[in-house]
Write a structure and sequence with these properties.
Elements: H1 3-26, E1 47-59, E2 64-75, E3 82-85, E4 90-95, E5 98-99, E6 101-105, E7 108-112, E8 122-131, E9 145-146, E10 151-153, E11 174-183, E12 187-189, E13 193-199, E14 204-215, E15 222-225, E16 227-233, E17 239-245, H2 252-259, H3 262-273, E18 281-285, E19 292-293, E20 299-301, H4 312-320, E21 329-330, H5 337-354, H6 359-369, H7 392-409, H8 411-424, E22 429-430, H9 432-443, H10 448-455, H11 482-492
Parallel strand pairs: 1-11, 17-18, 18-20, 21-22
Antiparallel strand pairs: 1-2, 2-8, 3-7, 4-5, 4-8, 6-7, 9-10, 10-15, 11-14, 12-15, 13-14, 16-17, 19-20
Helix pairs in contact: 3-4, 4-5, 5-6, 5-7, 6-7, 7-8, 7-10, 8-9
């Protein structure tokens, strides 16, 4: 080798060493939160998840949950360590098949892999655990709901930490495989496609589900207990799975008269929101929830919604979320109006469809319901704060904001906006500001004042959208749907924590 070649090689080697040293020094811990002002510890930085494989065993008699979650992810920076959101007691963690050190505190599982992880690296993270979920609290709250015959992993804004480790924020969606083994005779319901059961030699049965489209962690759920499970096919060919607790008592028939109409409701909503975005449909009714939640593909309802008879309005609301909230998720939790305002407006649309009151009539009555001095008008749907994230104003004033847009731009542009939004933001996350920009683009109107009035200004607006002022006596008859929508919203707004 010539001296010149040796010098060149030496220079290249030195440069490489400097580059490696620079890379090594740049490696940092992933952030313990994703940066959401409402929930600073929600989610984590440094990686993105593509898939969760959750394989569990659950014993209803003692509330013991055990098993393994395998996470497929990719690092987004050079990492020395990273966090998972998890409240249960882990027994082991492996990263890319190597045993990793870990600590747990305050709902955070801090993982120290063996060696730094390079940006762009594929990660296989395996967490094994066993615990009693109902005994675990994060910030004084327990999301896991133990019932007389099983348990419910259902809540918003988070439930994942009580049954699987995750990057627990809507901005990091993933696909899911969920399989849960339970004693024979116990049923398990989860999201997506039902992939059947498998008998085990120990007198247990394993139930398997697969979610093929991106799903936020809080929308992943399990309901375990005694259920009647009904399977059918929707008119569009998608599988439908509904499940009804055997403990519904007198509410059983009204619940079935509502939930069994899910494919009809979805078919109607497609006219306004565009094609249904997921691989399956259905619903679950179980005591012990206290609210309804739009779990992806399979919304879950407390029987209280059906105490006064069939209630298709809550079915319209939760399935409206399949577009607004599930397919298009919030970028930050302050964008909650994009979920609740439009799901509530789905009820107004359903009311028009079934001839029980127009959207205009429901908007006027909602506006008239709250006096100008009511604290209701002090909560801002566009940024309600974590304590008021599920306040009634987010639902009711949120729906009024949607109707105000419809009145301002006309039906043609309004429904074009909704369909373009759900198509262009499909399976992603978005902000209120992005929605406003699309509405202005489609309509050709400047809409800042409209949204400022209905979403971001305290106090009762001078007039209902498209209707009378609060100083004017309204002569419109009460819509037949109004009392049921009001009762539904009161229950829906009660699930905050």
């Amino acid at each position: 080798m010539s001296l010149r070649a040796k010098l060149t090689l030496g220079t290249a080697t030195a440069a490489s060493l400097l580059l490696l040293a620079g890379t090594a020094s740049a490696a940092e811990p992933g952030a313990p939160g994703i940066g959401d002002p409402y929930y600073p510890n929600a989610g984590n930085g440094g990686y993105e998840v593509s898939h969760y494989d959750i394989r569990l065993n659950y014993q209803p008699s003692n509330d013991n949950l055990s098993g393994t979650t395998t996470i497929l992810a990719k690092s987004t920076q050079d990492l020395t360590r990273f966090n998972l959101d998890f409240a249960l007691k882990a027994s082991s963690v492996r990263v890319n098949n190597k045993v990793a050190q870990f600590t747990q505190q305050g709902g955070e599982l801090v993982v120290d892999p063996k060696g730094n992880l390079r940006k762009g690296a594929d990660l296989t993270i395996v967490v094994t655990y066993s615990d009693v979920p109902s005994s675990r609290e994060v910030d004084g709250f327990t999301g896991w709901k133990r019932t007389a015959d099983g348990a419910l992993a259902i809540d918003e804004p988070d439930i994942a930490p009580w049954w699987f480790p995750s990057n627990n924020h809507p901005t990091d969606k993933a696909t899911f495989d969920v399989s849960v083994a339970v004693p024979d005779g116990v049923e398990v319901i989860s999201n997506g496609l039902f992939n059947g059961t498998a008998k085990q030699i120990n007198g247990w049965t394993r139930w398997r589900y697969r979610s093929t489209q991106p799903q936020a962690t809080y929308l992943a759920f399990v309901a375990i207990g005694q259920f009647e499970v009904r399977q059918s096919t929707a008119p569009d060919g998608r599988p439908v799975l509904n499940a009804y607790s055997l403990n519904l008592g007198a509410d059983d028939s009204a619940a079935k008269a509502s939930i069994e109409r899910t494919p009809e409701v979805v078919e109607f909503l497609e006219q306004s929101f565009g094609p249904y975005p997921f691989e399956a449909q259905g619903g679950v009714v179980a005591p012990g929830i206290g609210f309804a939640l739009e779990n992806q593909t399979r919304s879950t309802y407390d029987p209280a919604f059906f105490r006064r008879g069939a209630n298709t309005y809550v079915v319209a609301h939760e399935n409206g979320h399949q577009w607004f909230g599930d397919s298009v998720s919030v970028h930050r939790w302050r964008d909650i109006w994009l979920n609740e305002g439009f799901a509530s407006y789905a009820e107004f649309l359903w009311s028009e469809h079934v001839g029980e009151g127009t959207a205009q009539e429901n908007a006027q009555y909602t506006y008239d319901l709250y006096p100008a001095d009511s604290p209701f008008w002090q909560v801002l749907p566009g940024d309600p704060g974590a304590a008021n994230q599920f306040h009634g104003a987010v639902y009711d004033r949120g729906a009024l904001a949607v109707h105000a847009l419809r009145v301002a731009v006309g039906d043609e542009d309004f429904f074009t906006i909704l369909k373009r939004w759900t198509q262009e933001q499909k399976y992603g996350d978005a902000t209120i500001e992005e929605f406003v920009a699309l509405a202005e683009q489609v309509s050709g109107q400047q809409l800042d004042e409209l949204f400022r009035t209905w979403l971001f200004t305290k106090g009762k607006p001078a007039a209902a959208p498209g209707g009378a002022t609060f100083a004017t006596k309204v002569a419109v008859a009460e819509p037949k749907s109004f009392k049921q929508i009001r009762a539904t919203h009161e229950l829906l707004a009660g699930h905050q924590h």
